[in-house]
Amino acid sequence: MVGLKEELLKSIWHAFTALDLDRSGKVLSHNLCTVLNVPHDPVALEEHFRDDDEGPVSNQGYMPYLNKFILEKVQGNFDKVEFNRMCWTLCAKKNLSKSPLLISDEDAFKVWVIFNFLSEDKYPLIIVPEEIEYLLKKITEAMGAGWQQEQFDHYKIALNTSREGLSAWELIDLIGSGQFSKGMDRQTVSMAISEVFNELILDILKQGYMLKKGHKRKNWMERWFVLKPNIISYYVSEDLKEKKGDIILDGNCCVEALPDKDGKKCLFLIKCLDKTFEISASDKKKKQEWIQAIQSTVSLLRAGSAPPHKEARQKRKELRQKLQAEQEELERQMRELQAANENKQKELETVRKQLEAAAARAAEEEKKRLQTQVELQDRFSLELEREKMVRQKMEEQVAQKSSELEQYLQRVRELEEMYKQLQEALEDEKQARQDEETVRKLQARLLEEETAKRAELEKWHLQQQQTIQMTEAEKQELENQRMMKEQALQVAMEQLKQLELERKEALEQYEEVKKKLETAANNTKSWKDKVAHHEGLIRLIEPGSKNPHLITNWGPAAFTEAELEQRQRSWKGKKATSE
Questions:
Q1: Beta pairing, strands 206-213 & 276-280
Q2: Which region among 42-46, 77-81, 451-455 has the lowest average model confidence (pLDDT)?
Q3: Could you say which residues form the signal peptide (predicted)?
Q4: Is residue 213 part of a domain?
Q5: Does residue 270 share a domain with residue 351?
Q6: Residues whose CB falls within 8 Å of the CB of residue 74, separated by 6 or more in sequence, listed in order
């Protein structure tokens, strides 16, 4: 019933779109109920088509009413040709072309019905180029003419560039223009359209005159036979006005060829469950065509298949749907691929930007590293120069002190030997104390440098650990930095070891100076005692100031601050005189 409803809707759609529903809706509904043999209530019909805006048609549209009150009540016991002719009458006058056509109105009606059968199941109705080609081929074959494939291909290309297909009225104009039936008269074209109409719409698979043997009188009478998918009807003549009987076909029927007998030729037999029919064709060709047609029909009934033209139409539709689905799937895949490609392009652009940023960062880090390395080298160079200068200065100071000491000793050699020994002891003590202080300062400075070097070493070690924890991609890039830092670390370690050695040497010097100081102190005390005891030279040293004595790391100093300043002034004066 769903397929029947779709077929009815196509014809009704033409009538529906051609009419003004506010004025002619009741006429269309009444005519549909009449031709479809649907009982209707005139009072309910008037209620549904009231002139005010409160009626169901005004509020809900015409289709709900059509489905509920007409199409759902259709039983199939109606004349399809009469139904189509009613819809054709309502829409043809408004839509049919006014230009003269090579086909009659009756032929245009048949083309219109065929259009409804072959058109797509979507609105507005159109017939696609594949179905147009199928219909034109059928008409051309029925006319006995050759099919012009090249001509249709040109027409199809021009059609596809502008639209998806043709409407019913454009199809009528195409066939009525004679573009694909040149050289054929109107009668031939009309007969071809009728033959195609009989096959596609009326399901007439074959028809023609043959002789049939009667069951009672056993006489032979000429009848007009019409083969349909499940029945063979025979009439008195081809006008189909007086039917004489039917041969019901099913899967148990069979057809057999018979030998000539009783003066009749081209005989064949149709066997059914309850009856057997003997038929005589006009010639052997007609006999064979009828046998093959009936056998094909019985085979379709056994298989439960639809008539050939309907099955072929369904296959073409399924093929188009499959191709359309494949096309849509292909378009969907293309869209997905395009979207994926765009996403990949965006990702690649993002990665490129990230790589550029990473390269810029790496270049900046390399620049900073080189700058740091240069700064470290400069710092090491400055420290080395500073150490050299300090050492040179210290050596100069030592040389100067030695020179001053020699000058002082030269001047006091005139004194007594004991006094000279005592003075030498005092100078040794002073020099030892100065050396001790210098060594202590040097040791403190070395300790500070060692602490700074250790902190710097720890910093480099921490940087090296952080560098090791970096990603694998940056590891290779920073390998050279690590090697250079390791070399710098090794240099620093060596410097640290050198500083350790210098510190140890300073400690040893400090111990030696300390021992010398102790020896000098003992000698000084011993010489003081000797001078005081034997020669009374203790008076050579002036009494010291009563001010508090200088306090050193080893106790009270041997002389006051005033005496030290006086001696320094004396040394400076002697040095200036000698220079």
A1: antiparallel
A2: 42-46
A3: none
A4: yes
A5: no
A6: 1, 4, 5, 8, 36, 38
Give the C-alpha separation, 185 to 145, whole Å: 12
Predicted confidence at residue 537, as pLDDT, reads 43
**246 and 294, same domain (yes or no):** yes
Contacts of 372 (CB under 8 A, 6+ apart): none
* Rounded (10°) angle between helices 129-143 and 105-118: 130
Are residues 2 and 91 located together in one domain of the fold?
yes
In whole angstroms, give the CA distance from residue 550 to residue 555: 8
Helices 129-143, 149-160: inter-axial angle, 10-degree rounding: 150
CATH at 298: 2.30.29.30
> Is 48 in the same domain as 10?
yes
> Where does the pLDDT of residue 210 fall: very low under 50, low under 70, confident under 90, or very high at 90 and above?
very high
Confidence category of residue 55, pLDDT binned at 50, 70, 90 = very low
Domains: count for the chain: 3
Range of the domain at 56: 1-95
Query: Structure tokens of 132?
Result: 């147009």
User: Does 508 reside within a domain?
Assistant: no
Q: Is the pLDDT of residue 209 over 90?
A: yes
Coil/strand/helix, residue 296: helix
Domain boundary among the residues 370, 391, 426 is at 426
Three-class SS of residue 241?
coil
What tokens does 337 get?
């691929």
Q: Does residue 448 form part of some domain?
A: no
Q: Please give the share of the chain, as a percent, with pLDDT higher than 70.
A: 87
Q: pLDDT tens across 351-398, in order?
A: 999 999 999 999 999 999 999 989 988 888 888 888 889 888 888 888
pLDDT in tens, 268-325: 999 988 889 999 998 999 999 999 999 988 988 888 877 777 777 778 888 878 888 8
Give a yes or no: residue 576 inside a domain. no
Distance CA 139, CA 153 (A): 17
- In single-letter form, the type of residue at position 182 comes to K
Mean pLDDT of 518-546: 61
- Distance from the Cα of residue 283 to its chain's centroid: 71
Q: Are residues 348 and 301 in the same domain?
A: no
